[in-house]
Amino acid sequence: MPAIVVVNPTSGSPAPEGGLRVLLDGLAGRRIGFFSNHKPNAAAVLERVEEILRERFSVEPHRYQKTYPSLAAEPELLDRIARECEGVVVAGFD
User: Fold this and answer.
1) Which terminal residue of the chain has fewer beta carbons within 10 Å of its beta carbon, N or C?
2) What is the DSSP letter of 89?
3) CA–CA distances in Å: residue 21 to residues 6, 17, 35, 62
4) pLDDT in tens, 30-76
5) What does the domain layout of the chain look like in residue ranges?
6) DSSP state of 35
């Protein structure tokens, strides 16, 4: 009889108490990242959201994209986004 392999799909470490998010005090003039998972429809969604936020809040957009859609984003890319942006819009669409 073949062996059964059990896989745990959860992340390695729990989220910190209080959550991960930081709420911004408004969007006007903020540096906002637009992060694509590199799947076909993510760019279209991000472009439209960016357009709306630029019109309504004059945000300063910064665009980012993962190298491969099926892999996690590189830690260096995430660090760069954290340094350059005050908030991030993430799109993960097929």
Assistant:
1) N
2) E
3) 32, 11, 16, 19
4) 999 999 998 888 989 999 999 999 999 999 999 999 988 888 899 99
5) 31-91
6) E
